[in-house]
Amino acid sequence: MKIAYVLNTYPQPSHSFIRREVQALEHQGVEVLRLAMRASDTPLVDPGDLEEAERTSYVLRIGAARLLAGFLAEVARAPRRSWRAVRLALKLARASDRGVLRHLIYLAEAAYVKRRCAAAGVQHMHAHFGTNATAVAMLAQALGGPSYSFTTHGPEEFDTPKAQSLGDKVNSAAFSVAISSFGRSQLSRWAAFSRWDSIKVVHCGIEPAKFSAPTTVPKGPLRLASIGRFVEQKGQMILVEAMAELVQHLPDAHLTLIGDGEMRADLEAAIKSKGLQGNITLTGWLSEADVRAQLSAAQALVLPSFAEGLPMVVMEAMAAARPVITTYIAGSPELVLPGETGWLVPAGDSAALVRAMLQLGTAPHDQLVTMGQVGRDRVLQRHDSEIEAAKLAGHFRQAIG
């Protein structure tokens, strides 16, 4: 079985779950052709990401002239089919805020993807995120390429479902994947009732072997870790506000913010204005091994997101036997059990976040150890990358027939 993964920007530090999925499929004998539109602008630090970049073909690197020539060749070979694909691209453009030109570029990319799939003997295409990569796969199928499927993560797809033509993408795909029951419910809102059975739940996975010997929750002053891109939806700014209140009760509390992004300068300014330079550290992007080391040094992960799908960092923290503080949004309540594996707080509620962190910081050590172990057992049962990849491979086989 040979599958093409059609991706927008790959690999990326915050999308290691795609890499794990691809590699787990390959462990099970699936051959995967990696086709990304572009390389990441973010410097790659993880050896696994660097290796994936070497194995990935980048569509836009062939240049606009060759992409256009390839599409015109498709028109010459199959004019009726090509013009149907043009009409589909225009339909997607009308629903979108990205304009006609952008969707004609997607169409040229799709022609290239279709040719690469034919040359490589690809039997099916799979995209991640229901945004432009899925549009390219959808258009490649319209041009005569193989069937396609896609995985949605959220929140972007669920924030702008009409602009993403999400219902059309679900309806024309062989199947679609949500990473949580919440995600499946959101796809069902826009899909035809007759297509609901084609919407599958396949969780993002972790590699249990990398968490085979978790360290015990450390004792001592409260140490928290938060991992993610520095963007509004991740809630780091409200976390800084909460830390300013928390240190009034626990002066030695420390937070490590792991990641980077457009909000870094704003976060640094907020930390300085509140005098928290000794309580909050920003690390930038780290390798997976260094992230695990930071989790080992912390008593818990805190992720006060405003919008999510089902965060990988929550899974990784639980696999590392650490309690989690996160918000009652999207798929998070399907994984984090209040009082058993961590705390759930309302998104945007700084006072509730402070209370949860204070409860964690004053909880008996044995309680944190127990919560960490319960969380570890839960995530290993639900999010093993090999088990989830096997589910996905089964869906591929059914789609190929």
Structural write-up:
This protein has 401 residues and is of the alpha/beta class. The chain has 2 domains: 2-205 and 384-400, 3-Layer(aba) Sandwich (Rossmann fold); 208-382, Rossmann fold. Helices cover 48% and strands 16% of the residues. It has 16 helices and 13 strands. The strands form 2 sheets. A 7-stranded parallel sheet has the order 3-2-1-4-5-6-7, sandwiched between helices. Strands 10-9-8-11-12-13 form a 6-stranded parallel sheet, sandwiched between helices. α5 (99-120) crosses α6, α8 (166-172) packs across α9 and α10 (236-246) packs parallel to α11. The longest helix is centred in the N-terminal third of the chain and has 22 residues, at 99-120. The radius of gyration is 22 Å and the shape is elongated. 47% of the residues are buried. The model has no long low-confidence stretch (mean pLDDT 96).
What is this entry, summarized?
With 401 residues, this protein is an alpha/beta fold.
Please outline the helices and strands.
Elements: E1 2-9, H1 16-27, E2 31-38, H2 47-55, E3 57-58, H3 64-77, H4 79-95, H5 99-120, E4 124-128, H6 132-142, E5 147-152, H7 156-159, H8 166-172, E6 175-178, H9 181-190, E7 199-201, E8 223-227, H10 236-246, E9 254-258, H11 264-273, E10 280-284, H12 288-297, E11 300-303, H13 312-319, E12 324-327, E13 342-345, H14 350-362, H15 365-382, H16 385-400
Helix pairs in contact: 1-16, 3-4, 3-5, 4-5, 4-6, 5-6, 8-9, 10-11, 10-14, 13-15
